[in-house]
Design goal:
Radius of gyration: 17 Å
Strand content: under 5%
Structural class: mainly alpha
Number of strands: 0
Amino acid sequence: MNMVLALALCVGVLVAVFVKVGAMISMLWYVGVIGWACFMAAGGKLNGVKKAAVAGVGGMFCVAVAEMGSLMSGQMQLEWIFLGIAFAVIVLLSKLSWFSFIPAGLAGGAVIGAGGPIGIFDAVTNMRLVMVFVLGTVVGFVAELLATMLAKKA
């Protein structure tokens, strides 16, 4: 079996499980798939997990700080400026090796930003988003390992 077919099988099965388990434990499965996609785009392997997870969580943190800043300033009409600064910081953080994968930083920021400024106060959901994003990178790593084993067997 070639690697693409093996990966397709692993991805299909693991996404189905991710969706089923996610529904049972109130986990937003699609955030995990975003983390998984960032893992693959980062080149996979253990380095892909590190790059995607750390940059993604960094992006989430930057946007959370921006949303909180816009709320605390009392100038909600300026939220767009706070977010613009946050996303600029995400890109600037890429100068640090741990935060170097810009697409994951942007994706993580978008995940947290989707809740808007009021979503910042939902700490439980935000922690779930962080955990699911990181879990997605790990599941991507597992899919890659399984696909490699399947491709070698055939």
